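Curious: why these numbers?
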Amino acid sequence: MPGIPGQWDIGILNVVDVLIVGFLLYWLWLLIRRTRAVQLVKGLLVLLVAKAVSSKLGLQAVSWLLNQAITALIVALPVLFQPELRRALESIGRGRVFAASPFRSPEYQASRVVEELVRAVEMLRRERMGALVVVERRTGLEEYVAAGVRLDAVLSAELLFNIFVPRTPLHDGAVIIRGDRIAAAGCFLPLAEASRTGLELGTRHRAAIAISEQSDAAAIVVSEETGRVSLALEGVLLGDLDEGGLRARLSGLVCPSRADAGRRLRWRI
């Protein structure tokens, strides 16, 4: 019986060790779950699995290539995950480790979201007020939300209209929609190169194209000069949409039952 206390102590330490590792992994997941880092992690996991399979099958050339790729990725990780690492350190410094809770993911009626967006766009179009609204889908846009002004407000056409009233603090940036809520306003997005678009486009249109290239988000643009409505997806801009056309395309993108069909749409200028 003398050995039992020692064995019991080792067992407790093992449990604590596993719990700490699990806590760290869970915290890291909270940090990256709404960002592009999720896709990077998935790609890294695929490479690791492919490396294990190639080693098991004795595919030396493939294994060597995968080893080189994994080594290069490990060196590049600080650059690839720079926004997430910065947010992690900020969360630790502010003591807000659990600022992002998985239980905050809203369950919403996609049809209501579409109707509010279409109604807001029609109000903005009639008043010739420029606007850029980004609808988050699978790829998270947390890095842009964090750089803007967080609202976490229930989506409504009236609120969207008021945000884009000229000479107000938030009207110049983009609004990001997450679920049935306005996640943030005044968000500044990357711009597509003017020479690459092939058209004389304004800043809002170039930002819409860029964010749709870097993620699967859909970006709605209302032109301040013409009042025309455009929709950017997968780096392609569909212009001069009417109310019915915008509603149909948003329904295919936002409604879960039609999301796959929406991704297969062919976008033409």
